[in-house]
Amino acid sequence: MEISEEIKSEIRRMAVRNALDYGKAEPGVVLNRVLSRFPELRGDINALSKAVLPIVDSINSLGRQELETEAGRYSADFAAEKARKLERTAKPNFALDGAVNGAFATRFPPAPNGYMHIGHAKVAFIESISAQAYSGTMALYFDDTNPEKDRQEFVDEIKKGLEWLGISFDSEYYASDNLQLLYRCAGKLISDGNAYVCSCTGEEVKKGRIAGKGCDHKAQETQRNMELWDDMLGGKFEENGAILRLNSDMNADNTTLRDPTLFRIKKTTHYRQGDKYSVWPTYDINTPVIDSTKGITDVIRSKEFELRDELYFRVLNLLGMRKPRIHSVARLEIKGNITSKRRLNELIARKLIWGYDDPRLVTIAGLRRRGILPEAIKNLVLKFGLSKAERETDMGELLAENRRLIDGTAKRLFFIANPVRISVTGIPTDKLTARMRLHPKNELGFREYSLSGTFLISAPEAGSISEGDIVQLKTLFNITIDSKGESGIEAHYASGGSPGPVKLAWIDAENSRQAHLYTIGDLLEGEEFNAESMIQTDGFIEAYVDYLNRGDVVQFEKVGFFKLDDKTGMRFISM
Ligand SMILES: [Zn+2]
After folding, report:
1. Tens of pLDDT along 50-60?
2. What residues does each domain of the chain span?
3. Mind giving me the DSSP string for 236-304?
4. Distance separating alpha carbons of residues 77 and 530, to the nearest angstrom
5. Lowest mean pLDDT among 134-143, 183-192, 297-306
6. φ, ψ (nearest 5 deg) of residue 405
7. Distance, CA 254 to ligand 1 centroid (Å)?
8. pTM for this predicted structure
9. Residue 280 C-alpha to ligand 1 middle, in angstroms?
10. Does pLDDT of 454 surpass 60?
C-alpha cells in the first residue's frame, strides 16, 4: 500500500508535536498516534513504519529553532487540537471549583531538600494541565526556607526532572528571596497581637500543643513581643533559642491551629542566601504569603495537606491579604514502593539499593533510569484526574502503559540463560548467513550473522527435546536431533519439510556476548524490604548488542523488555 501525501503530512505534524513535547520524537509513539487517527492503516503497519522512520529522523535532526519554525506551520492545528483535548480533559475531570478561564495562576512548590518522586510528578502534571485548560500560567516556586536541608543540587535535580517530564514554567521564584516581605508580615501580626515570641524548649512547646495549653509567653505584652522579635532579627538569640508563634487557639480541634510556629532561628549557612539571615519562616507562613503576593489564584495540593487549609486562610485573613483557592487531589501512591526520604536514606545507608536513582524506586531519577517514558507517567496521572478518592495502584499499571509506548521501537533479540551447546552439521553454504528482522512488524532493520554451526540454546528448551526430534532454530531452519550428551547436543541440518512444532531460541556461539539481566520486582514485601526486589540472571545475548548504546531498549524474546543500563558491565534492567 502507498502511504498518501496526506498521511505523510499528518505523520510529520505528529512527529513535530511529539518532539516539541518531549525534546525528541519517538517513532513508536508517532506510529501509535497515526494508527489511532487512521485505524485502517493497521492492515499495513510495515508500509506505515517505513514512512514514519525517515520523517521522525528528519524532525529529530532539526535544531530547536527550526523545530519551532516547523511547529509554526501547524499552530492553527495545534490550537484546535489543544481545544479538543481540553474539551475532553477539562470537564468534568479537570474542572476546578471556582477557577476562571483566562484568570488562572498556579505554582509547583517543591522544597529543595530531596529528590522528586512520582507523587510530585502527579501534582506537577495536574497543575500544568490545569494551567493550560484555564489558559493560565504556572510558576515554579522553591520553598527553600530550611537552611539545614535545602541544597542547590536538589534545585538542579528538580529542574532536570521537570524538564525531562516535559513540564515548563512561566516564572520561577524562591521563598528565600522573600524574607524581608515575610518579616514585614511578622511585624504586622505581632503589632496586631496575633503573634508572640516564645522561648520555651521544643519539648515544652510540643507538650503544650498535645495538652491544648498555652505557655506564659502567650500572654506577653505586644510591646515586649516587638522587642523580642527585634532581638531575634538582631541575632541576640542562640539557634533554636526562640520562635515566633501565631496567637491562635490552643484548644482547636484542628491541631495545626494550636499556635503554630511561624519563624525559627537557624544559624546554618543557606545554600542561596549564605549567612544573610538566621530567622527562617516555616511552610505555614511563607506559603500563604508568597502565593498571595505572587498572584497565585489556584493552589493544587495533595490531600494530606488538607488539615492545613484552615491555617493558610487564617494567616491571610489576619494579614488582610488576597486568598487563593485551594484544591485538594488524592496522593498518588504506588503499592509495594516508598517515597519517604527517611526510609529511602535508610535503604541507601544499608546498601540495599544503589542510590536515589535505583531503578526499583519511584523517584523521577529511578523511573528515568528504568526507562519509563514521561508520557507513561502522564497517562497514568490522567487516569486519576482530579479525583480526591484514593485509589491504589502498583508498578504493573505504569509498566503496562510504558510497554504500550515502547513496543513499536524495542528491538527484538535472543537472550539465553543456562546455555546448552548444540552442534549442527550439514548446513548448506547458502544457509550459513542468518539475517533476521529486529522487529516483527515495524521496519527497524536487520541483524546478520555468519553461522559457526554451534548454537547456544536454553537448558529448559534443551530438556524438552529428544533424539530423533525435528525442531526449528527459530526463523532459521529445521534440524534433526542426533544425540544428547554431557558435552552438548549433536544435530544435523534437516532439509525442507514443515517447521517442527518446537521453535528454539538460539544464539550462534561465535556471535554471542555475556550479559546480566536484572529483573525488578516490588521494593517492599509487606512493610519490609523485599530481598528479591532485584534478581540477577546471567547468560548470553546476540553480538548485535555491540551496536546498542546505554539507554537502548530491547525485547528479549520469551523473556521481556529490558533497558541497557551499563554497557561495560553488560547490565540490563527489566521494564
Ligand atoms: Zn513559650
Report:
1. 889 899 999 99
2. 5-86, 93-176+285-329, 179-281, 407-575
3. -SPTTS-EEEE---TT-SSGGGSS-EEEEE--SPBTTTBTS--EEE-HHHHHHHHHHHTT--EEEEEGG
4. 49
5. 297-306
6. -80, -30
7. 20
8. 0.79
9. 18
10. yes
